[in-house]
Design goal:
Elements lengths: L2 H11 L10 E4 L5 H14 L6 E6 L7 H4 L6 H6 L12 H13 L2 H7 E5 L4 E5 L5 E4 L5 H19 L3 E9 L3 H13 L4 E5 L2 H7 L4 H13 L1
Parallel strand pairs: 2-3, 2-6, 6-7
Antiparallel strand pairs: 1-4, 4-5
């Protein structure tokens, strides 16, 4: 099976039916036919081979990026303008802007995705409704109870993805705080990778360090390329 065949099989089978803490709902973009059409086009375009790839792990899908397109850190605008995969979804995510500037530094999506596979520590996302009725992203580590509930799912999902053809010398963790702590402790227990390398999360860069964005693009490039 090609890398893309394995990814698509994995995503189509993703399901989580455990009871979640009150107010938290699962975000599973792969249940929608429209999203799966985009996902199939993307992975068949960039992963239809048997190459080994380095792994980058984000947190979990958010509503405006992977929650809308099914592709980590790829919002509809980047999907149309950079990947040339058409969609009528009109959403924009700052994290996607940063990641695609990193991708540009690699020479474009063909070269980047030939070497790198991006996923999430938890491949399904979560949302919660605030007091004003607004739906917000919720991270797997935002409550100890949720983290405990989803840990077996995280373990099972990561094991499956390692079989795609992942370089297990290093894994790059997006987020230097709670995501890194969870993944680093998780790796010490299960010994999936020789090293977990933390990188500042794209959202953090875009929100707090935008003036020094090039520094972080260079940091990503050096870490992943070498």
């Amino acid at each position: 099976m090609t890398f893309s065949d394995q990814i698509l099989s994995f995503l189509k089978e993703l399901d989580f039916n455990k009871k979640l803490p009150k107010g938290i709902k699962i975000l599973n973009p792969f249940q929608g036919e429209k999203v799966m059409q985009l996902v199939e086009q993307f992975y068949q375009k960039y992963y239809a081979d048997v190459n080994q790839r380095k792994l980058i792990l984000g947190i979990n899908p958010g509503r405006l990026g992977a929650g809308a397109t099914g592709i980590p850190f790829t919002d509809p605008k980047r999907l149309r303008d950079v990947c040339e995969i058409q969609t009528d979804i009109q959403l924009h995510e700052p994290s996607s802007v940063f990641i695609y500037e990193v991708i540009e530094a690699f020479g474009g999506p063909e070269k980047f995705y030939d070497e790198v596979y991006i996923s999430s520590v938890c491949p399904l996302g979560f949302v919660i409704e605030d007091d004003k009725g607004r739906i917000k992203n919720y991270n797997y580590y935002d409550s100890a109870k949720l983290s405990q509930i989803v840990t077996p799912f995280i373990l099972k999902s990561l094991k499956k993805q390692l079989d795609f053809g992942i370089d297990r010398d290093q894994v790059f963790c997006l987020g230097t705080g709670k995501n890194f702590k969870f993944l680093n402790d998780f790796n010490k227990k299960h010994r999936f990778f020789k090293e977990v390398i933390p990188l500042e999360h794209p959202r953090y860069v875009m929100q707090y360090k935008s003036k020094s964005k090039q520094h972080y693009i260079d940091k990503y490039f050096r870490a992943i390329k070498y």
